[in-house]
Amino acid sequence: MTNDLLKLVREKKPLVHHITNNVTVNDCANITLNTGGLPVMAYSLDEVHEMVRVAGALVLNIGTLNREQIKAMIKAGKAANEAGVPVIFDPVGVGATTLRTESALEILKEVRVDIIKGNKAEINILAGHGGQIKGVESVGEYNNMEAAAGSLAKKYQCIAVASGPRDLVTDGKRIIWVANGHELMGRVVGTGCMAASVLGCFAAVHEDKLKSSTAALVTFGIAGEIAAVKEGVKGPGSYKIALFDSMHNLDYEEIEKRMKIEMVV
Amino acid sequence: MTNDLLKLVREKKPLVHHITNNVTVNDCANITLNTGGLPVMAYSLDEVHEMVRVAGALVLNIGTLNREQIKAMIKAGKAANEAGVPVIFDPVGVGATTLRTESALEILKEVRVDIIKGNKAEINILAGHGGQIKGVESVGEYNNMEAAAGSLAKKYQCIAVASGPRDLVTDGKRIIWVANGHELMGRVVGTGCMAASVLGCFAAVHEDKLKSSTAALVTFGIAGEIAAVKEGVKGPGSYKIALFDSMHNLDYEEIEKRMKIEMVV
Amino acid sequence: MTNDLLKLVREKKPLVHHITNNVTVNDCANITLNTGGLPVMAYSLDEVHEMVRVAGALVLNIGTLNREQIKAMIKAGKAANEAGVPVIFDPVGVGATTLRTESALEILKEVRVDIIKGNKAEINILAGHGGQIKGVESVGEYNNMEAAAGSLAKKYQCIAVASGPRDLVTDGKRIIWVANGHELMGRVVGTGCMAASVLGCFAAVHEDKLKSSTAALVTFGIAGEIAAVKEGVKGPGSYKIALFDSMHNLDYEEIEKRMKIEMVV
Fold first, then answer.
1. For residue C44, what is the domain's CATH number?
2. Host domain of residue A206
3. Are B44 and C65 in contact (CB under 8 A)?
4. Which residue of B has its CA nearest to A40?
5. What is the ipTM of this complex?
6. Residue B171 and residue B176: Cα distance in Å, rounded?
7. What is the Cα B87 distance to its own chain's centre?
8. Residues of B whose CB is below 8 A from C232
9. How many domains are there within chain B?
């Protein structure tokens, strides 16, 4: 399944339109290309509706938001909804400031989102289960992620993805844990944002977003595992470079062998 | 010739003022420094006219444009024209949205541009020969690049550069094909933007922009070739790093040996 | 001392709030994480005051400033002052344009800054001693840095840091020269900006900013020395990657051994 979808991404080269933060934007563009998609970043209110219509997916990330950008996200999101383009939403730092919380809720009210992807705190906070965030970093323990993500998925009739050492994917009924990935991914700024780009690539090529999201996380996680054992990787700097290489070089057999998915009934 | 110009860049360390997209801006800054120039990024309407006056070249790139930024580009461009500072224009994604097309035409109307650099689709579209663009990526076949680039160069009395596996440089009369470069350059986000920065470095040190552009593309292409065979290069991530290294370490003998230029008539 | 402070950074993981340029923002985020802190970038007038209150330090960098951003910096700076959060100011390119000079002076008038960090030209210019800047690069000779930095520190009752082959740290009375670092750091765009992030991490964990600044520069400089001799480093591209790795891997014994501080009475 994962391999079939990755093959589709590589064949179709879907355009993934990002409206995202200015910190990790280059990483998002490169991981999209490495996965097999084509990245495009377009932010202006005067063009987002046009650009998104030819895209395979739209990724919205509020990491360095402002009111103007939120307007563009909503405009792009509505145009995506009309055109049937899947929307991935990464509510970076929701709960950390009033602006982030209000903007996230406004986007979710105005745009039909297909996938919400956040760290544990973000998912808990958006689900109304409380949570603690330090800047954009999840802090504290979250022992009931399945309930939080499940209620968020039900509320917005979408897929909720909670990233962490194990990633949780749910549509509010089915729950999938993806155990692929590597601890070094947390030592690099932007792997969360990159995951959203990969989710976008896969969402563009398959109707069932529970499946596409699982496949995306497996793929990115395995690239992360392979990168960690590459010769020349000596810390987070060289690890990030190896991650790009591994994503580009991913081999279908390797994926078959390493895939670690657990389905909770 | 290429070597003489590269020596001049390294000696004079021209300041290259960029008004550019937020995706590849760091790469543009680094490649400028690696080539021998000094990068500066300054975008505000309140300062671009001052900054450009002390620059050796101005690079305008509309990759993540908005109306405010276009105003700043035009202001900077006019100040560059007055001060005799060469202007390099990279019409990223022209044709993909109305905003991009209109903005590109407005810049070309208001500013005397010395070099227009685009991918095949962008050059064809700007020349009025039609073309197809997917986000910011050229798609489709272009069999008459010489005619398209030639007419664009004539129309704006400038140098037109069409990048691709072979780069075309023309002033509307003379046509030069540069065959240096490597296929991996297309696997990294931003090599097109970086090429414009290198064109800026070289344009700053020589009057004849056909020659300076050819020398810039030869230099960058050879750096790309050398990077591809470096130990430790295992994919697009490590390739990009090696490209920066190679550009910095470029050796005049190597350039002499590898240069691949074909002059048409 | 340096080691004690680095241990504190790694234990406390201070949140370092950046309002910074879009060229080196990703590098600043990564070096903050590599040092042991948590980076957050938040720019909007609608949230900076909230974000900074939970931060351990605020880093203001005017590398790609505009009037809106300066307002946000002042608002964040005032909130930082109220909350007792130390402020690090990097007046990138001051003197190069009227906007930069006026904005730097306005920030220094409105915000109580704990540390001003600049290159030699920037410190001299801000101190009113004259200086020459090419874009954002210090040019010319500066033979009386101690006097310039000292008068700047006295004027704003803060620590002044002048970066260069040797970094100078002063509170207007005591003068410290840090001789750690490597010449390759000057071949990479953004090491100056990164130094400000490291200054922020250390300022967050110690009251005495003369000491915290010295420790930060020693630490970053030693990471730069170690990176330079790493296998696989062949130029500025691979050097930057090794710098991130080295910062993350820094070993207390190595710091003890390599520390090069000279105290001027």
1. 3.40.1190.20
2. 2-264
3. yes
4. B135
5. 0.97
6. 9
7. 10
8. 232
9. 1
